[in-house]
Amino acid sequence: MRSEEPWNLKTFLKALGLLPSQEREDPAWEIPVLQQLTVAIEVLGGKIGESSKRAVSRRALDSYGRLSDTEKVTFFEQLLDDYEVDPPAVDAAYRSWSNGGGSAELVTLIKEVEPRRQGLLRNLNHADGATLELVSMRADLLRLIHEGHDRLKPLDHDFRHLLSSWFNPGFLDLGEITWEKAKAVSEHLIKYESVHPMHDVGELKKRVHPRDRVIYGFTHPATGDLPLIFVEVAFANGLPTGIDEILKPRQTINPAKADTAVFYSINSSFDGLAGISFGNLLIKRVTQLIQASMPNIVAFTTLSPLPGLRKWLERSDDENHRRLVKELKEPGTAEAEPDRVGLEERFVAAAAQYITETKNERGLPIDPVGRFHLGNGATAWRIVWPASTRDYIWEKSFGGMIIYRYEPEKIENQHEDFVRNQKISVSPYFLTPIKHTSREPSQHEQSEVHID
Q: Is the pTM for the entire model greater than 0.70?
């Protein structure tokens, strides 16, 4: 969408009809790109017609795209400092409302407490393709905040407020990402697969082309065919006992004869939409879609990572945990059969403690993946060890993973229990090593236990 025409103050003013017809050809008209952006923003903040607004917002976004990081920080600081609320106006509006004012006074107050920069961001969104460019602008902002520019944090509130509205669930479209579609957006999918990284299109094909593998994603009018978030699903018989049987299956199965859907990777795919949650809605919608089209699927589960488990174990003062860590670090442990000296049982017990007892300052599980699934109403079903000897899993959790199960008839109640009372739902099998039992018939399992 970016304009290819070299830009200077003269062409900008000409586009607005503000330059005399006999303008001088003078190099002095050339101005730095940050000043070009500043001028465009000032114009957008004034009275301007709809057609001009589209042209100026396009010029502004083009100019932003040419800024260095240092200039981006300066620009964001200008938005904070120059386009804040007007304190006297806020105070007057508040006094008018608090002194018996009605709906009209409340509307005025709401208008005055909104920073002017929110209006500027809305005006920038008039250009073709602007929504996606503003998502990228927020990604820059988040990166700069992460790099130490804490002063910019209030500006992210404005971006998040607007993007939450623009990417409301009502605008999202759920669809299957077929192999043909996946090829067209392969670079995007490969880049944002963060759970089980893919290195090339060949690996992507293994996750979408076999008949027992499928990817679903949410798209938005602003992103076209690029999914905002996507989930990779494997159809299986019974619960998985490791990730390799999913990522490197020996054979495919007929989905019509499967009884279990395994959500094994969920990935958000736009950095600028961080903190705007789509994952809980995606899982529920995909579950409903599969239920409607595949009545043979009776169990909806995940095979999820435990990203903080190893660090938690290594920092623990518990002597049992110290001994466990020492054994897990012994050469060859990853490949060994997990039955010596009850190693698997002790790993499962420690991992279960990590999920159900280790809390953050808000009283919620410290594990981010656990917070996500348990907060969605899932049940902590089984600990799997070793689920993988892959380096990236061993480095995070000594090869351990966890199965969460989504039971449609229990999701809402368990979600409410978690949100209101911080209750964690676990299955009766939670402390039973999965590799010491036969593969359970999914349709007969029920969860009953709750842990405060």
A: yes
